[in-house]
């Protein structure tokens, strides 16, 4: 199988130093909030009793637009409603970013322990599951089989690799679909922006990837797993970067989109 070329993104956000904003420790405040949904521009009103919401917050709601990302446009605490007439805000993005970030390829990378965690990133892109009233009150069952393994230096030679899937993975790398990567103590988590958001888990030891799992339905070594492997391989070739260090890497487009809406204490 022929080698897959590297990729690069030339458009860049200008270098900036982002100042410090005080952390929001406010308790939840009952409110009615207007939320705009980016997918179709609709603005709908929801009841909130779980969070201290502000204009600009990123939220998920229940109801027909469950799973769609919304932005709070208006908040009011002056209301009298019939609760049965309103759906609710069910989650809010964690709006704090800390640490020092530098550009590596098309990623903003931090080696700081306080950098953006997988759990924090998940609040931005994946809505928590809300059970229907007729569902049994049981925990979801996650069943794990054998994970895939890849040598980062010989991805194309793996017997598990389908070439057409590999080509699609290269496209994912080039267009920024590998939105988030984190490695801590050899344990890795990635989030891929595909048909929907997918989570990839893996173990990293030098050039060896093991215990590779993706929650997509593809019954094989999927483009999401391969896109993570290719991204890691290409990042490992960059001057001043080492896969042996703990790091967080966020696609620069995703990074700047979040920075514009967060409480931050970071340097670039």
Question: What is the topological layout?
Answer:
Elements (H helix, E strand, L loop, with lengths): L30 E7 L5 E6 L9 E4 L8 E7 L12 E4 L3 E5 L1 E3 L2 E4 L7 H8 L22 E4 L11 H12 L3 E7 L2 E7 L3 E9 L2 E7 L8 H14 L10 E5 H8 L3 E5 L1
Parallel strand pairs: 6-15
Antiparallel strand pairs: 1-2, 1-4, 3-4, 3-5, 7-8, 8-14, 9-13, 10-11, 10-14, 11-12, 12-13
Structure description:
The chain is α+β, with helices and mostly antiparallel strands and 268 residues long. The strands form 3 sheets. Strands 7-8-14-10-11-12-13-9 form an 8-stranded antiparallel sheet, sandwiched between helices. The chain is globular, with a radius of gyration of 20 Å. It has helices at residues 118-125, 163-174, 223-236, 252-259; strands spanning 31-37, 43-48, 58-61, 70-76, 89-92, 96-100, 102-104, 107-110, 148-151, 178-184, 187-193, 197-205, 208-214, 247-251, 263-267. α2 packs across α3. Mean pLDDT is 87; it is low at 1-24.
Q: Can you give keywords for this protein?
A:
single chain; 268 residues; alpha+beta; eight-stranded antiparallel β-sheet; 4 helices; 31% strand
Please report which band the strand proportion falls in: under 5%, 5-15%, 15-25%, 25-35%, 35-45% or over 45%: 25-35%
Number of helical elements: 4
Main β-sheet, in a few words?
8 strands, antiparallel
Unreliable spans are 1-24
Main-sheet strand order equals: 7-8-14-10-11-12-13-9
Described by the principal axes of the CA atoms, the overall outline is globular
Q: Can you give the mean pLDDT?
A: 87
Rg, Cα atoms, Å? 20 Å
How many β-strand stretches?
15
